[in-house]
């Protein structure tokens, strides 16, 4: 967001969500964020989401 000079309000508008929803998305302790929301947010900042399953 900093690199693209996006405020939380503008970022939320671009994702199509509320500012409070964006705050939940950015909260590392919130585990209820959907993959769809993460994908939309990534796209706004010029990124894509990549999930990988690895052996433990």
Automatic annotation (TrEMBL):
Hey, what's the signal peptide range on this chain? none
Q: Which Pfam families match?
A: HTH_26 (PF13443)
- Give a GO molecular function annotation for the protein: DNA binding
Taking every annotated instance into account, which residue ranges of this chain make up the domain HTH cro/C1-type?
1-44
- Name the domain of life: Bacteria
Q: What is this protein called?
A: Helix-turn-helix transcriptional regulator
- Source species: Halotia branconii CENA392
